[in-house]
UniProtKB/TrEMBL annotation:
Entry keyword set: Hydrolase, Lyase
GO molecular function: carboxy-lyase activity; hydrolase activity
Domain Amidohydrolase-related, chain residue ranges per copy: 85-268
Coiled coil in keyword set: no
SUPFAM superfamilies named in the record: Metallo-dependent hydrolases
InterPro entries: ACMSD, Amidohydro-rel, Metal_Hydrolase
Name listed for the protein in its UniProt record: Amidohydrolase
Pfam families referenced in this protein's UniProt entry, alphabetically: Amidohydro_2 (PF04909)
């Protein structure tokens, strides 16, 4: 089975190097490429960090990226100038979307200041991925990263394809409500695991209630055309993650969730 990893980070920073070690990996392109080859992962989609300079966003050919408005660069009052640079990214073939980090940057994604980015997403027909759910830092604010914020954005911008990153975890019920109601919202399943898990059967036994809850609400949604495999590399171990997603998604939907949906939504042309 071919796989697309629809959510990774690709930064050489001490924080990312450290979490890669905890996941049993090395945060280098060579290592990532070799792990991808070992698991038949044919493409990764980088969620951008480190600002908007074009020169900061050079990626090997097995990676595409979403231009990221992270806390190092997003300022609502500078959205017009930033949109100029975001457009330069969107004109690149390997830039397949825009990534927003509202919990970290303290803004509601339906705020009018975000308008210029949605206009560009519509113009270039590229999706807007949004971090939802828990955050990695405590100075982030969860009211901005709650999956419910996608509802108003999806209604205001029906032509924009949204990707709810991390499926709002742990607000899974709220996330499913938003995805079920809004056909222009998909979700990636990244960022649920972290570190390296020695025994997945043990993990499934220990987290039995949570895993069943997750599966229950995915079954309730019953729409496997809008769920994307993703890891949040280098946060999690790649072999663990494939096993995890294969466990929570019924086997007849694996091709869609592991490959087809990301290929279509990010228009990867694979
Ligand atoms: Zn991420």
């Amino acid at each position: 089975m071919k796989i697309i990893d629809a959510h990774i980070h690709f930064c050489r920073e001490p924080y990312f190097d450290q979490i890669a070690e905890l996941a049993g990996h090395k945060n280098t392109s060579e290592h990532l490429k070799s792990r991808y080859a070992a698991h038949n992962i044919v493409q990764g989609v980088v969620m951008g960090n480190r600002g908007l300079q074009l020169s900061e966003h050079q990626y090997p050919d097995y990676l595409s990226y979403c231009v990221g408005l992270d806390s190092t660069c997003f300022k609502a009052e500078e959205a017009v100038q930033q949109a100029y640079w975001v457009e330069k990214h969107l004109q690149r073939k390997n830039c397949v979307g825009i990534k927003l980090y509202p919990g970290y940057n303290h803004f509601y994604i339906y705020d009018p200041s975000v308008d210029p980015f949605y206009q560009l997403a519509m113009q270039y027909k590229k999706p807007v991925a949004v971090h939802t759910g828990l955050t990695a830092t405590s100075n982030a604010l969860l009211k901005y990263s709650h999956p419910m914020v996608l509802d108003e954005a999806a209604v205001r911008y029906p032509q924009v394809q949204f990707v709810m990153c991390h499926i709002g975890n742990p607000w899974l019920v709220d996330a499913i409500a938003v995805i079920g109601k809004n056909k222009n919202v998909a979700a990636d399943l990244s960022g649920i695991l972290e570190g390296r898990i020695d025994s997945m059967p043990d993990f499934f036994a220990r987290k039995h209630g949570y895993i069943n809850f997750f599966k229950t609400w995915l079954e309730y949604l019953d729409d496997y055309d809008r769920l994307l495999y993703g890891t949040d590399w280098p946060l999690a171990n790649i072999a663990n993650y494939i096993e995890f997603v294969a466990h929570i998604i019924p086997e007849r939907h694996h091709d869609k969730v592991f490959f087809d949906n990301a290929n279509r939504i990010y228009d990867l042309g694979l």
